[in-house]
Task: structure prediction
Amino acid sequence: MTAYIIRRLVYGLFVLVGVNVLTFALFFFVNSPDDMARAQLGAKRVTAEAVDKWKRERGYDKPLFLNEKMTGVQKVTETVFFDKSLRLFAFQFGASDQGRNIGYDISTRMWPSLAVQLPAFVIGLATYISLALLMAFFRATYVDFWGVVLCVLMMSISTLFYIIGGQFVFGKLWSLVPISGYDGGFEAIKFLALPVLIGVIAGIGGSARWYRTIFLEEISKDYVRTARAKGLSELRVLFRHVLQNAMIPILTGVVVVIPLLFMGALITESFFGIPGLGSYTIDAIVQQDFAIVRAMVFLGSVLYIIGLILTDISYTLVDPRVRFS
Result:
């Protein structure tokens, strides 16, 4: 197991390097440092001196990948890529193009993101699995049929519809909760109730249908027929045997998502005015703040790789047949 984890960490390091290089190249393929300077200065017509000063203050006055004016290792170290991207591997996020401390912003904004994503994840997971088990229990009946129809309909509806519809009905029409905003402490509950509810509802269609497929696949296997032949009730077979043996594919989708809960939801946080990492990323993209964008992409990649490793490790906990060498 230890050797396997070390191998995966090494593979993950190469993935991070690739993601880092690709993000850097794509961003500067679309935007040059001059374009970034003009966007940040907020004027269509700015002097060349102002642009040069902005780039010099933020370290964008150097060559992107290779500095031909230098010799030795300084050809690589005296570049924008080295200053802005390679330091991420030491989790030195530096300052944004607007001068804010990115590390501080991440440490403060991750909590509102978790406040939305964690309840939505836990409540949603329990809801999706319960609905899937219900459809699997009443398989080939009207309950199963209309359940699948409802899931397909809900899958076909955009998340934006749930958000706008929820804000109109619960926020404006019934005035039960604020439409947007955020506050600390217990006051945050009234701001989080609607985003969490919408997050759960928006995921019912795809998730419940996926879990139903997993359960139906397990139900058709020989060990289920053997359990029924021994006289076990359908509920006992479903909860003790089917659910347990379906944990591996369930964990594949669940454990990977857990680290990404820190990243927040881009659309949800933006529409509800929640100061989390999702809205933080959206604002950085709009403002063309490359420092924040690269930091969030890197952090997301790190968390995703951690999720994949945790998924593989969790396999051994639910299935003793799975072993890594």
Residues 104-287 form a domain with the MetI-like fold fold (CATH 1.10.3720.10). The radius of gyration is 25 Å.
